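Feature request, filed as a ticket because there's no other form

It would be nice if the structure record came with a short human-readable summary line next to the tokens. Right now we just get the raw output. Example of a typical job, pasted below so the devs can see what we mean:
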Amino acid sequence: MKKLQDKPSPPDMPNYRVEDTTEFLSTVAHELRTPLASLKGSIALILAGAAGDTRDEITDLLTIAHNNADRLIRLVDDMLDVAKARLGTLTLHLQPISVADCVRRALDSMNGCARQRDVTLKLDVGGDVPVVTADPDRVEQVAINLIANAIKFSPSGSTVAISVEHRKDDVQVAVTDSGPGIPKEDLAHVFDRFYQGRNARECQSGSGLGLAISKAILDGHGGSISARNNRGAGATFVFALPLFAHHGVHIADGTK
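Raw output as currently delivered:
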């Protein structure tokens, strides 16, 4: 297994604090986002006909550029989230929410991607699921990360099953695919930053940050996330949000 790790500084180089490196990463990511968003917006205007009609081959090239700009923006956003989590500045905008509604929005966002890969998304909400106090956007972000991950590893014609249920002290969401599963040697590292196991490297997609960010978000909510292999085939990722929250990151109104 190969994992990106921080290399020790050479003897003649200063030893920077982790906080310094993280702050630098956050600053660079923030500065990159604005020009990337401007680039994406400009390409979108041309594709919409703002500069007149374009030849088909130029439209194809612009579409590729637009998609890559979008991918870079997502990567920059992931880098910002990782930096905020490491610095303890990841902010939660807490309110009473329906976890099921957050998962439904995530599913709606990923339906197009699933159809492209001939994968069916199936949602099962078990009974009366109580409201929890959480950040709806961050909960939706976690659900999108897990559903996208499941779609990526699912074979054509298969189903990704998503369930939401109330347990004794929390609300639990499970995302199950029927892909190759997680190699045993990778299972303990799937939530590490930048870690990509054998199956992920073979897919050649993703930054290796989505699961790490999901864990940081759930840690901030006082929740949990785990992964396991299914009997037969596939893997299941499960996250849980407590009914009685004990949050570990900065909250929007300044409270803890």
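Something like this underneath would help us a lot:
Strands lie at 95-97, 120-126, 132-134, 159-166, 170-176, 224-229, 235-242.
The domain at 95-242 is CATH 3.30.565.10 (Heat Shock Protein 90).
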